[in-house]
Backbone:
């Protein structure tokens, strides 16, 4: 029997949210270098958390406690994801780099500027994998919020056969989060310096996640 779209639209969000809640209850967390972020959050100051799209499941399970705001693509899959994460406490200005990106960016800027935590998966929703798109830098410039790159890895885990090789922590996995030092992008920074900073952050994020993976899973097979 083929399930209709309306059936999936109705039931995927509550079931997905329940799965995230239950999985999150079983996970054990190790958090490193989060003091600067925690101080900003406790004081009601804005901050931006960023990582690759394939760390989404770990991030949703842990960072929902901060009730962050996150952009979700305007698509049928995006509709289901938005409905799911809203049940977990996220706010979701709609749009992405592929559809509705300007409106989503303005919504993120507006929310983060009020002192919210923004979550931005910089190579989503469809890649290219490992490339930071310009929206992150614009969000930081317009909102004045510092960027915190977050390196995450879980053991044991599964890897989905998706474009980003989504990492799925298994129940009772140990999840490691490491925060990088905050990066501020001044509003008046010239475009060429913004681009240089974007490339530097892209390399920092790739290197930091590679180190984290090596620590948690061992060096990659040659």
Residues:
């Amino acid at each position: 029997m083929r399930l209709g779209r309306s059936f999936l639209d109705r039931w995927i969000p509550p079931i997905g949210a329940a799965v995230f809640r239950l999985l999150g209850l079983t996970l054990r967390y190790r958090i490193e270098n989060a003091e600067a972020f925690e101080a900003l959050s406790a004081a009601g100051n804005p901050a931006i958390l960023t990582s690759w799209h394939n760390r989404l499941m770990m991030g949703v399970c842990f960072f929902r406690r901060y009730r962050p705001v996150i952009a979700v693509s305007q698509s049928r899959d995006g509709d289901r994801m938005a409905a799911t994460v809203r049940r977990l406490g996220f706010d979701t200005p709609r749009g992405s780099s592929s559809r509705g990106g300007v409106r989503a960016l303005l919504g993120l800027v507006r929310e983060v500027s009020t002192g919210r935590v923004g979550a931005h998966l910089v190579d989503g929703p469809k890649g290219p994998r490992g490339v930071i798109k310009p929206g992150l830098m614009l969000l930081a410039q317009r909102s004045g919020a510092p960027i915190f790159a977050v390196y995450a890895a879980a053991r044991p885990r599964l890897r989905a056969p998706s474009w980003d090789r989504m990492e799925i922590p298994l129940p009772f996995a140990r999840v490691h989060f490491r925060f990088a030092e905050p990066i501020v992008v001044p509003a008046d920074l010239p475009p060429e310096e913004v681009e240089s900073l974007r490339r530097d952050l892209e390399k920092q994020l790739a290197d930091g996640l590679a180190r984290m993976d090596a620590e948690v899973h061992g060096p990659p097979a040659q």
Q: What stands out?
A: The CA atoms of residues 45 and 115 lie 4 Å apart. Strands lie at 28-32, 47-51, 69-70, 117-121, 147-159, 167-179.
